[in-house]
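From: lab user (bench 3)
To: helpdesk
Subject: output format question, protein + histidyl-adenosine monophosphate

Hello, I'm new to running complex predictions and I'm not sure whether the block I got back is the full result or only part of it. Here's what I submitted:
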Amino acid sequence: MASKYQAPRGTFDVLPEQARTRARVEGAAAAILARAGYEPIATPTFEDTELFERGVGRSTDIVRKEMFTFEDKGERSLTLRPEGTAPICRAYLEHGMHKLAQPVKLSYVGPFFRHERPQAGRYRQFHQIGLEAIGTDSPLADAEAIMLLSDLLGELGVPGVELRLGSLGSLDSRAAYLEELKAHLHAHEGELSKDVRERIDVNPLRAFDSDDEGTRGVMASAPTIVAGLEGEDAEHFAEVRALLDAAGTSYVIDPTLVRGIDYYTRTIFSFVCDALGAQSEIGGGGRYDGLIEQLGGPATPAVGWAAGIERILLALDEEEQPAGRDAFVAIADPDQRQRAMALAVELRHAGLSAEIDLAGRGLKGQLKHADRLGARRVLILEADGSAQLRDMKTGVQRAADTGNLVDEMTGGET
Ligand code: HAM
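Helpdesk reply: Thanks, we reran it on our side. This is the complete output you should expect:
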């Protein structure tokens, strides 16, 4: 019975059987982040386009190719948010959160949009869970953020996860490093892929991400930022590592780790999962000490991450069993309709799950339907006002006292 309409390319419907596992993932994240003091925040689904151009960076793939940008009726350029960090920093400034006790620790969950080529684990509308700790440059905040994502993936039981850790240094040392890297790339221009060659001066870091064989050869001998970290940058990175070591969080240092967004400074990290195939990153993030200033605020260091809910679900590859029902109120005679509804409502108000037939089935059909729903007990209302209680597991049926309904439904086996 397919209609000619389908969910747009790269998007998907979340059907009830998938919604249950999703709810478990979101619930686990909410509990873990709340226990660590991260307060929920929600920002609009679209923002001024310029926020992302300035925040995410004009040279990134996200801004160059992947944004869903449109004009509203007032000819303002708006963009469906491709990520959550720039909007949260905008909100932090807009609401004067820099006047609160620092850091401000925030968590979020919601839909994000990128016009990427769809494949397993990569969609045009996807969902992230994330956190941001704004207003501290302490390595403790980096380590806390990393451990929280590690805890979440551990509690959910995501298999085969590896944490990769790197550092980009501060803004200044990063600028110096980028010049060194550009020089290396220019010296080997002939061996690079066209795409990388054309963007040497715009975004040289992306060369580390290339699949092209020639480019990979050049990158194998490229200078790495991690090797060149100095002074406070090196100390910061060492402290983050020491904190993770002390907590027993295992990681591998990846000196070539890069991320597709421009705002990162110092610590960056990525949780990858081997069950995921090509889109192997389940979540990641890092420090972004220059972003708030870039958006017009005071210099404010910050760190955070986001994890893709769909990628977590793919890695878990499981469907939660339906919850079943405590009760189904069936009627042996159509005249009992009102009474059935009143009794079901009474059960619901007492905190039980209860359904009635909404489709005009005969008694046999109702019992079959109750079984399909996983109802544990069925109350059958007879035409003479009496009632029977049927235990669906044992098949045992006996007279029931509807004056004592909740007890009848929650008592021991009938
Ligand atoms: P990101 O690495 O661009 O970072 O995205 C974070 C996560 O979102 C990825 O690891 C992935 O699981 C998921 N994701 C990204 N794109 C897609 C897609 N097209 N389809 C499905 N899942 C996707 C950020 O967005 C940063 N805002 C993270 C951050 C927060 N950094 C600091 N604070």
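A quick orientation on your result: The CA atoms of residues 107 and 232 lie 28 Å apart. Let us know if anything else is unclear.
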